[in-house]
Design brief:
heterodimer, A: 113 residues, mainly beta, four-stranded antiparallel sheet, 0% helix, globular, B: 116 residues, seven-stranded mixed sheet, 11 strands, 57% strand
Chain lengths: 113, 116
Amino acid sequence: GDSVTQMEGPVTLSEEAFLTINCTYTATGYPSLFWYVQYPGEGLQLLLKATKADDKGSNKGFEATYRKETTSFHLEKGSVQVSDSAVYFCALSPIQGAQKLVFGQGTRLTINP
Amino acid sequence: DADVTQTPRNRITKTGKRIMLECSQTKGHDRMYWYRQDPGLGLRLIYYSFDVKDINKGEISDGYSVSRQAQAKFSLSLESAIPNQTALYFCATSDPSPQGSAYEQYFGPGTRLTVT
């Protein structure tokens, strides 16, 4: 079945550091890919998405590129801020079927000043 | 006002009790979902509904039931709560995009449920 695997957390970085959170997926065909963010005490919010191979999603300084050849959708940010501290979820939406989201396990990110 | 609201936000209940979690949305979306979040497991789908007359089981529906009272309301019930149903529960909504497979889900703030 479809699945998403994220790098193990938690991740702790200093402010202005470079961030990478790895995400790989297994799916039939070419799913749509998403990154959601969950700030403390809140629900999930869509951070960015990509719908086809080589698409780059971007928002708030974060970027992720849909890599079909490596079945990956790694999240990157060049200079993180304390306000980026949150839990990040990679997810996919299968191309066929009931259009449900399949989530990775989440990666907790803490940025220290 | 929030587009997707959940009540209660926190609930502590005892084993064997019946409990209902409620979700309301003002986004006008047809599709609604219930997920549970457990540490290290991400979000897992419990039930989903594509309209008032269409309700479907997700990957972990055992021990849960749902009711879609109206387009805007989708309730999750635990008929006889057990401790391993202690989790954070999220409601979400969506509307299919013109492309069909790529769409965003909008989440409520969550209900933290503890079963003792």
